[in-house]
Design brief:
Elements (H helix, E strand, L loop, with lengths): L1 E4 L1 H9 L2 H16 L9 E2 L8 E4 L4 E8 L2 E9 H5 L1
Parallel strand pairs: 1-5
Antiparallel strand pairs: 2-3, 3-4, 4-5
Length: 85
C-alpha cells in the first residue's frame, strides 16, 4: 500500500491543531495495519465523493481517500459538516 496526500489535504491538515494532527497520525498507523479496524469506521461515500471512502479521525473529523490499485490518496480532511454539508 502506497499512501499519498493531495495538495488540498495537505493544506487542510496544516490548518488543524497539533492535537488533531497527532490524532490523524495515530489513525494512519492503525489504517496501515488494518484498513477496516472498527475504530476507523471505514466506509464508502456518495454524492460529490462517490468512489471515495472515509475514515473517522475523531468524533467529528473525517479523512476522505480514494483507492486506485495499490495507491491510496487522501484528498480531504475536515469536520463532517464541512465535508458533507
Amino acid at each position: 500500500m502506497i499512501l499519498t496526500y493531495h495538495g488540498v489535504f495537505k493544506k487542510n491538515y496544516q490548518k488543524l491543531s497539533k492535537r488533531l494532527q497527532d490524532k490523524f497520525d495515530e489513525r494512519i498507523l492503525l489504517f496501515q495495519k488494518d484498513k477496516f479496524d472498527p475504530i476507523l469506521n471505514n466506509h464508502a461515500l456518495n454524492g460529490k465523493y462517490l468512489g471515495c471512502r472515509s475514515i473517522n479521525v475523531t468524533g467529528d473529523l473525517r479523512a476522505v481517500f480514494k483507492k486506485e490499485g495499490d495507491m491510496i490518496t487522501f484528498i480531504a480532511i475536515d469536520s463532517h459538516s464541512n465535508l458533507y454539508g
